[in-house]
């Protein structure tokens, strides 16, 4: 399992941007597909996006396509980190955002919470209207 630490959350006005990061110290980081999920108050946790080992393949929930972009750094010098650039934020994006790791190589499984074996503690994103 990986120890994952999210950062970058905060309060932003609608239409604004935030960049979330998720870091680990493990050199085995590059073996994992990394995903982001979010949970709004009173709602179930939902898939946001995922990025494969190399960073060459990413998938997104329809609600964030064209607004959110995933990237990753698989080198020690950059701290084994993934980033999620979130643009044109909307009030409905307000949630706690969690990063997670899975070793599944099947992209059709990346949206499933139970495929992920490591989770971060979450970072709050609040978008005001």
Give a quick rundown of the structure.
The chain is 0% helix and 44% strand.
Q: Could you walk me through the main structural features you see in this protein, from its secondary elements to its overall organization?
A:
- This protein has 129 residues and is an all-beta fold.
- Helices cover 0% and strands 44% of the residues.
- The chain has no helices and eleven strands.
- The strands form two sheets. Strands 2, 4, 5, 6, 9, 10 and 11 form a seven-stranded mixed sheet that branches. Strands 1-3-8-7 form a four-stranded antiparallel sheet, with no helix packed on it.
- It is globular, with a radius of gyration of 14 Å.
- The mean pLDDT is 94.
The termini sit apart by 38 Å
Integer-rounded radius of gyration: 14 Å
Topology as H/E string? EEEEEEEEEEE
Fraction of residues in H or I helices: under 10%
**What is the average per-residue confidence, as pLDDT, rounded to a whole number?**
94
Q: Proportion of β residues?
A: 35-45%
The tally of helices reads: 0
Counting helices, strands and paired strands, the structural category is: mainly beta
Largest sheet, if any?
7 strands, mixed
Q: What shape does the CA trace take? A: globular
Kindly state the number of beta strands: 11
Query: Which parts are unreliable, with pLDDT below 50 for 5 consecutive residues or more?
Result: none
